[in-house]
Amino acid sequence: MQSKPEHAATAGIVCVGLGPGDPDLMSVKADRLVRQARHVAFFRKKGRPGKARQAVQGMLAEGAAEYAMEYPVTTELPVESEAYVELLSRFYDDWCLRLAELARHEQVIVLCEGDPFLYGSFMHLYMRLRERGDVRLEVVPGIPGMVGCWHATGLPITWGDDVLSVMTGTLPEDELVRRMQAAEALVVMKVGRNLPRIRRALQRCGRADAAWLVQNGTTAAQQVARLSEVGDEVCPYFAIVLVHGQGRRPEAAW
Length: 254
What we know:
This protein is of the alpha/beta class.
């Protein structure tokens, strides 16, 4: 039996960072808000259940209203194309209006994997809603997916004065190389079909042998392997490539 909320929820929009995938790694606040929610919105690709929605399976209160925000396009068009930008802009504009109207009198919980302010789709809604200024806005931080992934390797990501660089695999190969050469520790997000380009960039930097690929980090489907041991077959878009820093550290006296 689901417990009843201890107090009435304040109207507005609350985006909840769900963390890297394992429900046990959600914050206490996020867990409470999700379980008490009466209106829940989440992003998903058309025909898919949505990773954020899957993460809270079994947690939602009976009778909670769900709002699936289905992207009109994901990888079908180049991200720099005019058509892609127009479709996504209309999508975010539309959901901004719909959620704002609902949030005038109700609390709406928006689910977001990882942390909402780190490459999260909610950021596009947040900026529109903040500009409107007619609904209460709150964002609950979450453990970023990359943090769960580097813990999955069992190795520290940075030492001493190491510089950590976070980039997306959607960047052009030459830009990836430039940024990889400028940092000691690397995190490459949004892998998926970009894996061959990421691998080539790492090879050009002489860092491919030190790279790891983590798929579905912290979940039951987690896969952790050296990048050199994995082929270029399609992997999840939310997979992460890591190169650990090897910087300054005090060595053991013995």
